[in-house]
Write a structure and sequence with these properties.
The complex is a heterodimer of chains A (254) and B (291).
Chain A: H1 2-15, H2 18-40, H3 45-78, H4 81-87, H5 92-126, H6 133-155, H7 160-176, H8 178-186, H9 191-202, H10 212-216, H11 223-249
Helix pairs in contact in A: 1-5, 2-3, 2-5, 3-5, 3-6, 3-7, 5-6, 5-11, 6-7, 6-11, 8-9
Chain B: H1 2-39, H2 48-51, H3 56-62, H4 67-82, H5 94-104, H6 109-122, H7 126-139, H8 145-158, H9 161-172, H10 180-192, H11 195-208, H12 212-245, H13 253-257, E1 274-276, E2 281-283
Antiparallel strand pairs in B: 1-2
The chains are: A mainly alpha (254), B mainly alpha (291).
C-alpha cells in the first residue's frame, strides 16, 4: 500500500519532468525520421523503418530510465524531503521499491506512446498492424525495468552525474559482455579462465532482451528463450533492487 | 531500556541477513538462467551487423577524433568475424570492411596485410587482395611491405611474373626494403622471359653484394640465365638443322660445321653443354644450385 502511494507520487513527479517530454519528442522525431532514411536506401524500406523505430524506442527509453532514475532518490536527499518521509512509519525498502515502481509505470506509459507512433508508421507502409513488433518492444521494456533498478541503485549513494555514467556503463557492458565469451574460448584452462567465466556469467547480458533482429527478419525464435530471458530479467532486477535496499538501509543522512 | 535498544538492533540484523540471503538467491538464479539462455541457439542474420556500416569517410566524423581507436576495434572485430566459418557469406563484405578501416586509419598497415591474406587464402579472391594492397600502398607510398606482399601473391599464387616484377620493382628501392627484394625482382624477370634485363640485374647484384652468400646466389642465377640463353640458341639451331637435313645433329659441333652457329658456347664454369642427339635436347652439365 505504502509502496503504491510512493509509486503514484513518483509517477506524478516524473510526469512533471520536462526532460521526459523532451526525450519523448526526440524519440518521436527519430521514429518519424526513419521514413526519410528509408527513402535513401536501396531495397527494403520497411526494414529500415523497423530497425530505426525499435532502436529509437530502446535508446530513448534507456535515456529516460537513466536520466530520471538517477535523480529520483538523490533529489529527496538533496532537498531534505527524505527526513519527512523517513520520520513516518515507512520502511526504507518500501521507499526504494515505491520509487522503482513509479518510474517503471512512467516508462510503461512512454514505451506505449513510442510504440503507438512506431506501429502507426509501419502501418502506413505495410497497411497491416505488425503485432510481432510488440515482442521486441516487450523485451525492450524488460531491459528498461532492469536499467531503472540500476539507476536507482546508483542514485541511492551517488550524485546524478556519476550515477548516469555508471548506469550507461552498465548498459554498454550488458551489450558487449558477449566479447568475454570470445576471450574465454581463446584462454587456456586455469584460474584466469575460471575468473573470466564467472565474470561472464555474473555481468549483465542485455542481449537476452534483444529480439529486434529476429522480429524484423521474421526469424523463428525458440520458445524457451522467451521464458528464460523473462525470468533472467526479473531475477537480475530483484538482485539489483536488493542491493539498492541494502545500500540505502545503511545510509546515514545526518 | 536495554531490551528496547537490543530488539530493534536484532531485528535489523535479521533483516540484513535475510536481505543478503535474498541477494545470493537472486544472484544464483540469474546466473543459472544466464547459462541456460546461452545453451539456446538463436538464429542470426549473417553479416546483418555490418552491411549497414556506412563508408569510413563518413564514419570518421562520427568517431569524434577517435578514428584510430574505431579502426582498431573494427579490425579486432573483423578478425573474429572472418574467422567464423559458420557465416557462409562473410567474404562478400570483406572489401567494405577493410575499406572502412583504411578510411578510419590509413596508416594502419596490419589490416591491409591481413585483409589481403584473408581475401587471397580464404576468400580465393586474388583481385580483391591486390585491391586492398594497392589501396594501402596508395595511402602509404613509403611502405615496402605492401607491394612486397602483392609481388609475392603475383609470383607464388598467380604465377603472373610480369605483375610480380612490377610490384617488386616498386618495392625494392623503398627505404627499409630487404636486399633480397632485388633478387626476387631479378628472378621474376627471368621467369617472365626477359633474360637480358634479368642478366643485367643479377650482374649488378653480384657486383654490389657485400657478402659471399649473396654473391654465390647471384652467381648461380647468372649461371641459370646464361644457360637459358645459350641452350635456347642451341636448341633453335638444332631445330633449323633438323629442318634442313631431316634429322637431329649427331653432335653440337655439326651446328658449327654447317654454319648455324659461329662457335659453341660454354656455360659460366667453362663446361660444354650436354646434348642428346635422340631428342635434340640441350642442357647444362650442372644444376645451378649444386655448383
Amino acid at each position: 500500500m505504502k509502496i503504491g502511494a510512493i509509486a503514484g507520487i513518483t509517477f506524478k513527479e516524473a510526469k512533471r519532468d520536462r526532460i521526459l517530454y523532451l526525450l519523448f519528442f526526440f524519440a518521436a522525431v527519430a521514429i518519424l525520421a526513419s521514413r526519410v532514411l528509408a527513402i535513401l536506401t536501396v531495397g527494403d524500406r520497411v526494414k529500415i523503418i523497423k530497425d530505426v523505430g525499435l532502436a529509437s524506442i530502446s535508446i530513448f527509453g534507456v535515456l529516460m530510465a537513466v536520466l530520471i532514475g538517477t535523480s529520483l532518490v538523490y533529489k529527496e536527499i538533496d532537498k531534505k524531503t527524505i527526513f519527512t518521509l523517513l520520520a513516518k512509519p515507512l520502511h526504507r525498502a518500501e521507499f526504494i521499491l515505491g520509487k522503482f515502481f513509479g518510474l517503471v509505470l512512467t516508462l510503461l506509459v512512454m514505451t506505449a506512446g513510442m510504440s503507438l507512433i512506431f506501429l502507426a508508421i509501419v502501418y502506413l507502409h505495410t497497411f497491416r498492424i505488425e503485432w510481432t513488433m510488440l515482442v521486441a518492444v516487450a523485451y525492450i521494456f524488460l531491459e528498461l525495468v532492469l536499467i531503472t533498478a540500476v539507476a536507482i541503485l546508483f542514485s541511492s549513494f551517488s550524485t546524478p552525474i556519476l550515477s548516469s555514467i555508471f548506469s550507461l556503463a552498465f548498459y554498454l557492458i550488458g551489450h558487449l559482455s558477449w566479447g568475454l565469451e570470445l576471450l574465454i574460448k581463446k584462454m587456456q584452462a586455469g584460474a584466469g579462465r575460471t575468473a573470466a567465466q564467472f565474470l561472464y556469467t555474473f555481468l549483465p547480458d542485455l542481449e537476452n532482451f534483444n529480439f529486434k533482429t529476429e522480429v524484423v527478419h521474421n526469424l523463428p525464435i525458440p520458445a524457451g528463450i522467451f521464458v528464460y530471458s523473462f525470468f533472467y530479467g526479473i531475477f537480475y532486477t530483484a538482485f539489483i533492487l536488493g542491493l539498492a535496499i541494502l545500500v540505502f538501509r545503511r545510509r546515514d543522512f545526518i | 531500556m536495554t531490551d528496547m535498544t537490543r530488539k530493534p538492533a536484532a531485528a535489523r540484523g535479521a533483516a540484513t541477513s535475510l536481505l543478503v540471503l535474498f541477494l545470493f538467491a537472486t544472484c544464483a538464479s540469474f546466473m543459472a538462467l544466464k547459462n541456460k539462455t546461452d545453451t539456446i541457439a538463436r538464429r542470426k542474420v549473417p553479416g546483418a551487423s555490418i552491411i549497414y556500416i556506412p563508408s569510413g569517410k563518413f564514419l570518421k566524423y562520427a568517431t569524434f577524433g577517435y578514428s584510430a581507436l574505431a579502426a582498431d576495434l573494427i579490425y579486432l572485430w573483423a578478425i573474429q568475424y572472418f574467422s567464423t566459418p559458420t557465416i557462409d557469406d562473410r567474404f562478400s563484405h570483406l572489401d567494405h570492411i577493410f575499406a572502412i578501416i583504411s578510411d578510419l586509419d590509413p596508416t594502419y598497415l596490419d589490416p591491409y596485410e591481413t585483409g589481403a591474406l584473408i581475401a587471397q587464402a580464404e576468400g580465393h579472391d586474388t583481385a580483391l587482395a591486390f585491391k586492398i594492397l594497392d589501396n594501402g600502398f596508395a595511402k602509404n607510398p613509403t611502405q615496402w611491405l605492401l607491394p612486397f606482399d602483392a609481388g609475392h601473391i603475383a609470383m607464388m599464387n598467380l604465377k603472373d611474373f610480369d605483375l610480380a616484377k612490377k610490384y617488386f620493382e616498386k618495392c625494392m628501392d623503398l627505404p627499409g626494403a630487404p636486399e633480397f627484394t632485388r633478387r626476387l625482382y631479378a628472378n621474376a624477370l627471368y621467369r617472365k622471359g626477359d633474360l637480358e634485363t634479368s642478366w643485367q640485374t643479377w650482374l649488378e647484384i653480384y657486383n654490389t653484394a657485400s657478402d659471399e652468400r649473396t654473391k654465390k646466389i647471384a652467381s648461380n642465377h647468372l649461371y641459370q640465365v646464361k644457360t637459358a640463353v645459350d641452350t635456347g640458341r642451341l636448341k633453335e639451331a638444332a631445330g633449323r638443322f633438323r629442318e634442313r637435313f631431316g634429322r637431329w645433329p649427331s653432335e653440337l659441333a655439326d651446328l658449327v660445321r654447317t654454319g648455324l652457329v659461329q662457335a659453341l658456347p660454354k656455360d659460366l664454369d667453362g663446361q660444354d653443354y650436354v646434348y642428346d642427339p635422340k631428342t635434340g635436347e640441350v642442357k647444362a652439365a650442372t644444376i645451378p644450385w649444386r655448383r
